[in-house]
Design brief:
This protein is an alpha/beta fold. A hairpin with a 2-residue loop joins β1 and β2. α3 packs parallel to α4. The radius of gyration is 21 Å and the shape is extended.
Amino acid sequence: SERSKNELLASSFVLGSNTLIKNISVTRSGQIVEFNKGKITAEFYSNYYTSKESSVSYETQKKHLEDILDIAFKRFIKSLGGRKAIIPLSGGFDSRFIACKLKELDYKNVLCFSYGKINNNQERETSQKVAKELGFDWKFVEYNEKTVGNYLKDEEFKAFCEYFSQFS
């Protein structure tokens, strides 16, 4: 639809379950689609919304989340068995959080890396700064003709992009 096309041009993706193809939709996070006797139904089995306000204090909820995260990261560290944890460290909060949690729990065998163009790359600069601050090794993989070739013009890459984006 024209709306989906405009969403893609404005934000690099199509919102909701819409795609660029008329009468074709994608499932959304927390959604299940059932095909039964020629009928299609879609419902959400999970969502991000709460139906009521919690009576539990913010501090209690925060402590509970911290406890859960500590348990999860201690299991993760145990599963590493001393092996090197390799973190694709971008400028974003998700990868930074993982690196910080490993540091907090005193896991030292960590390699962080970032990739992309070398010049004017804020993510590279942020990634390097975070890794240095945490005391972790850091590497950068530069995108250039030698490392990635001319993949943007490669027909197989173009076909992959169409497939993985689901036209959304």
